[in-house]
Specification:
Layout: H1 9-28, H2 31-54, E1 56-65, E2 69-70, E3 74-84, E4 92-96, E5 102-104, E6 107-110, E7 122-132, E8 136-140, E9 143-148, E10 155-160, E11 164-169, H3 184-196, E12 203-207, H4 219-225, E13 229-233, E14 240-245, H5 255-258, H6 264-282, E15 286-291, H7 306-315, H8 330-333, E16 342-349, H9 351-356, E17 367-374, H10 378-384, E18 388-391, H11 398-408
Parallel strand pairs: 2-11, 14-15, 14-16, 16-17, 17-18
Antiparallel strand pairs: 1-3, 3-7, 4-6, 4-9, 5-7, 8-11, 9-10, 12-13
Helix pairs in contact: 1-2, 6-7
Length: 415
């Protein structure tokens, strides 16, 4: 906010002293006091004028490292201020306006500048650390620079209106690999790789057809089959997984539909979603992320492609809840197919929901359910129907909930 009063406490005191000199000089008739008061007024005027004539700032730019902030993690903000000044300037202070979605101590000393008679622009670089506090896109700025004259009598606060949008992505928790757990939970990827051979050429023979290279002839198979056979590589299959996040606002608070970061329960669900995707992709699964009605929320991510995972995390910075309720449609999404791991993330989850999604568990090699707000014995019922279940508290340990669901496959809450 721009200060309307241009004088510092010292300058205000000098002004009051000048006024007092005028009054006393008029009452007592001491001419010297009149001259002294005029001198003080002249000095104050020169101080104010020096601030408005010696410095002119034209541009303010900000950069963030990394480019996207993350909830709970620090990022470095670098502010570059372009300044043109013909005369030396005294040090001042600066303060950058930080929105509620970010946390930072964005203030410091603005450096003094030497004389620049040619009027060339000088770049002043400021930096501070910012922490993502709330998912979404938050405007950083404006920047305020307060400068004083060399005598400390006058000040000038300049507000630069440029704002920089900062994207705050959901927090990604490092989850244990499914291969760390025995049995059904850890067997999918391991089995697939063992059957095909990790990184090896999986060769089969087929009959020769015109156009095949002679160098691909499989002589042993040719002798065995008594016909010309050629080598054909069998492509290794990629294990697939599906992550489902139910965004129905009735399972969260109404604020979850209004803006990112407004509802702690929905934030826990979004963070769980991106964390699970990151874990599965890192383990080699090709992952699809869908809503409970089957709508794709992101393009399919191939196993090991962590760059695409980062893109998904950034995309989910603005994800909000929706009005409609679609959990019942999830059964139709998996009807008639057999798929790999399915991880369902929901908010409120009651016993009736456990009955609704029961068929999905029979179409998946591993069905996992993470509920932010389970009701009653809903998780126990889902576990009895084939789901590996766990409750995820917004302030709890997501990694522990994930481990417990994968390892034991029974309902347990972390509160």
């Amino acid at each position: 906010m721009r200060r309307l009063w241009p004088l510092t406490a010292r300058g205000t005191g000098a002004l009051l002293l000048a006024v007092a000199c005028f009054i006393i000089a008029n009452e007592v008739g001491i001419t010297e006091l009149m001259y002294f008061g005029i001198l003080l007024i002249a000095v104050l005027g020169a101080s104010v004028a020096s601030l408005y004539l010696t410095r002119r700032s034209d541009t303010v730019t900000r950069s963030l490292s990394p480019d996207v902030a993350t909830v709970g993690r620090d990022a470095l903000v670098t502010v570059r201020v372009g300044v043109r000044t013909a005369l030396p300037t005294a040090p001042g202070t600066w303060r950058d306006t930080v929105p509620k979605g970010l946390a930072a101590k964005a203030h410091g000393v603005f450096p003094a500048l030497g004389s620049g008679l040619r009027g060339a622009e000088r770049i002043v670089q400021l930096s501070y650390s910012v922490t993502g506090a709330r998912r979404g896109i938050h405007p950083l700025g404006p920047l305020q620079v307060t400068s004083t004259d060399p005598f400390g009598l006058a000040r000038r606060t300049t507000v630069f209106g440029e704002r920089t949008p900062v994207t705050v992505a959901p927090a990604v928790t490092d989850l244990p690999a499914l291969s760390n757990f025995a049995g059904e939970a850890g067997g999918t990827l391991h089995t697939t790789n063992n059957q095909l051979g990790q990184g090896a050429d999986n060769l089969i023979a087929r009959p020769y057809v015109p156009g095949d290279s002679m160098r691909r002839i499989h002589w042993r198979a040719t002798a065995h089959r008594d016909e010309l056979m050629v080598r054909q590589e069998e492509q290794e299959s990629t294990p697939e997984a599906t992550v489902v996040i139910d965004r129905g606002v009735l399972r969260f608070s109404p604020e979850a539909m209004q803006a990112p970061g407004a509802d702690p329960g929905f934030e826990a669900a979004v963070s769980a979603c991106v964390s699970v995707v990151s874990r599965l992709v890192h383990d080699g699964y090709a992952v699809e992320v869908i809503d409970s009605d089957g709508t794709l929320l992101a393009e399919r991510i191939d196993g090991g492609d962590m760059t695409e995972v980062e893109g998904l995390v950034n995309q989910f910075a603005t994800l909000t809840a929706r009005r409609d309720e679609h959990l019942g449609k999830l059964v139709r999404v998996f009807a008639g197919v057999m798929t790999g791991p399915v991880v369902l993330i929901v908010g409120r989850f009651d016993p009736a929901d456990a009955e609704i999604i029961a068929p999905v568990a029979h179409h998946s090699t591993l069905a996992m359910l993470l509920a932010v707000a389970p009701v009653g014995d809903s998780l126990e019922r889902a576990a009895d129907l084939g789901w590996h279940t766990s409750a995820v508290d917004p302030d709890g340990d997501l990694a522990a909930a994930w481990s417990g669901a994968a390892e034991r496959g029974v309902s347990h809450a972390l509160r």
